[in-house]
Specification:
The chain is α/β, with parallel strands linked by helices and 343 residues long. The protein has 11 helices and 13 strands. Belongs to the glycosyltransferase 2 family.
């Protein structure tokens, strides 16, 4: 069994593989590198075979998105390669740096309660700024809105070493996610129904319900292009983000008597965001939000079964950020994590 498996999921990302695989291999620190291809149509498979013979290639028959693709790839590694003690799942558009693995592995080895961890995520194009997808570790507020150390909504902090510590957080980003392999498989991996977006937050939430921890390791840094497979301007991304947020919340929100009250507030705020999209002429995003809500209603029976099963398995309560990030950011003017913490 390998101590760590580096697993890159790919869908029509040949250009990113050509750009970033050499750096991954150069800084793999002796760990095996896998590329799991999700039925690409851009000759990614032939390209990897021809140019990277040391990479272990997994050919998945269909595109199951981030969630389904990684579930199948990691199960394949466990079955056919003897598995690994840890996985790290860098996106195909991640540029790693020298020594990016060792600090995270040291943190995981020192604390068996840590189930998931991430490095510091900076922007590939603006290298002194934190990147949207995870920054320096994420949190969830009481209405289910997510934010990060280093990135709150559209405000990105400059990296000045303020998050170079190792810190317990609520969620670690799927852009470059380290996982304790046995726990990943124990909880059933990612939720396939998410396809892509928010699946890592759902996983981190479920792991914490069982008493495990999620951390960010500020001593490790990678750079992320972002939107490599699905650009932020694509309405399908809007659909997945809004739908999966509702999926995640219904499954995991505590039963404190306010479940449907909080959902009503979320739906109202989603409506407000639809008006903002409409104001700038992005009517396809408005339709995406409407479709996301109807998809949520259609999945309620399945989500209710999942919610009941998770409640039976839960061993410890999980604390959310107890205030509204929307109110703090848009009304009170708290634009950074430090300002939120001070307030």
């Amino acid at each position: 069994m390998d101590s760590l498996a580096i697993v890159i999921l790919n869908f029509n990302g040949q250009a990113f593989l050509a750009k970033f695989l050499p750096t991954v291999l150069a800084h793999a620190e002796g760990h095996p590198v896998y590329v799991a291809d999700s039925a690409s149509t851009d000759d990614s498979v032939a390209f990897v075979r021809a140019n990277f013979p040391d990479i272990r290639l997994i050919e998945l028959p269909t595109n199951g998105g981030y969630a389904g693709g990684y579930n199948r790839a990691l199960e394949y590694i466990r079955t056919n390669y003897g598995g690994a003690r840890y996985y790290v799942l860098p996106n195909s558009d991640i540029e790693v740096t020298p020594g990016w693995i060792a600090p995270v592995m040291a943190l995981l080895e020192a604390n068996p309660q840590i189930a998931a961890c991430q490095p510091k995520i900076l922007s590939y194009s603006q290298r002194d700024l934190f990147e949207h997808a995870g920054a320096a570790g994420g949190y969830v507020d009481w209405l289910g809105y997510v934010f990060c150390r280093g990135r709150v909504f559209a405000t990105f902090e400059t990296d000045e070493g303020q998050y170079n510590d190792n810190q317990r957080v609520f969620w670690a980003t799927g852009a470059c996610l380290f996982l304790r392999a046995d726990l990943f498989h124990q909880v059933g991996g990612f939720d396939d129904s998410f396809f892509a977006h928010m699946e890592e937050i759902d996983l981190c939430w479920r792991l914490q319900r069982l008493g495990y921890e999620v951390w960010a390791c500020g001593q490790s840094t990678v750079y992320h292009v972002g939107g490599g497979t699905l650009h932020k301007s694509n309405p399908h991304k809007t659909y997945l983000n809004y739908r999966n947020s509702l999926f995640m919340l219904y499954k995991n929100w505590p039963s404190d008597g306010w479940l449907w009250g909080k959902f009503l507030l979320r739906l109202i705020l989603d409506g407000v965001s639809s008006l903002l999209f409409l104001k700038v002429g992005q009517w396809r995003d408005v339709m995406a939000i409407i479709r996301a809500h109807f998809a949520f209603y259609g999945h309620l029976p399945q989500l209710h079964r999942q919610r009941k099963a998770l409640q039976k398995q839960q061993k410890t309560a999980v604390a959310l950020y107890p205030h509204s990030i929307v109110w703090a950011y848009f009304v009170k003017g708290a634009k950074t994590f430090r300002e939120l913490r001070n307030r």
